[in-house]
Amino acid sequence: MAEMSNINVQKLTIVQQAIASCCGAILTSLFVTPLDVIKTRLQAQGNPFHDGKCFVYSRGHMDHVYVCENGDSKAWYKKPGHFKGTLDAFVKIIRIEGIKSLWSGLPPTLIMAIPTTAIYYTCYDQLCEALKNRPGKHDEHIPVIAGSLSRFGSATVVSPLELIRTQMQYRRSSYKQLYLRVSSKVAVDGWLSLWQGWTSTILRDVPFSAMYWYNYERFKKMMCKEVGANEPTFFVSFTSGAASGSIAAVVTQPFDVVKTHRQTQLWENETLKKFHRGTVNQPGQL
Fold first, then answer.
1. Rounded to whole angstroms, how far apart are CA atoms 263 and 160?
2. Please, what is the angle between helix 142-157 and helix 198-227, to 10°?
3. Which residues does 144 contact at the CB level (< 8 Å), separation at least 6?
4. Does 254 fall in a domain?
5. Nearest 5°: CA angle at 247, between 143 and 83?
6. Which CATH number goes with the domain that contains 140?
7. 179-233, pLDDT tens digit by residue?
8. Is 4 exposed, middle or buried (0-12, 13-18, 19+ CB in 10 A)?
């Protein structure tokens, strides 16, 4: 009977952790999305057309027009704006587009939260348990292996939603416009085009997860030893998570920039194709 009760408690704990993780991911998305929008805009504004040279023509505040040469053809492209920094982007987005633009991409973010959390943490827990039961394995390597594999799986599954979220954050548009852009991309390049930027996403997320869990476990043990606690307190867990997450984020930041550039190419390439078909606005019509 004692064994049965232990099993029931363990299952209940897993369910509680899953529910708490999903709720936490949803709440975090609501608060962090504005910063994510600003981050995407700042990363993408230095991403010109890759098919030609670009020159800036300023016609006033937040109105930068690019003429992109591709052989004998020229495409005019109105970029989302030139931001000098985080605060400048925050103020200009609210002033020009409205405060709602700071929550662009929130629907796919909320949709992503459930499968990402469920797949990531479930796989992580299961892999940790499986690796602990194998002989000849060092405990300090288990979080690295489990974190890397679980992040690889979850990032691959939600990669199309990540692409859609980046598109919505990059340029404010209606769902109809977004659907037309994505569907035209799929029609031309196939369904695999929805995984555009997957490689850079994996290069960002897998090392991030490996470094995060490795440092988290090490920091947690060190702090528990310092305070003389057998089990980590909330302060120990929070501090360990914040420190390990910050280190991992700084190291993997370049891959996050590459991912944004890769995924925002979808809109830019479609604009250039429309120009060649004669459906893009001329300079005087912008």
1. 10
2. 140
3. 210, 213, 214
4. yes
5. 135
6. 1.50.40.10
7. 887 888 888 888 888 898 899 899 999 999 999 999 998 999 899 888 887 888 8
8. exposed
E strands, the chain, are 54-58, 64-70, 73-78
In a domain, 44, yes or no: yes
Q: Whole-structure pTM over 0.85, yes or no?
A: no
SS3 83: coil
**Structure token digits, residue 267:** 């809109």
Which run of H or E residues covers position 72?
none
Kindly state the DSSP code that residue 136 receives in the 8-state scheme.
Answer: T
* Segment (H or E) for 67: strand 64-70
Give whole-number Cα distances, 82 to 89, 104, 271, in Å: 8, 18, 19
- pLDDT 10s digits, 143-171: 899 999 999 999 999 999 888 888 888 87
Contact by Cβ (8 Å): 257, 197: no
The total domain count for the chain is: 1
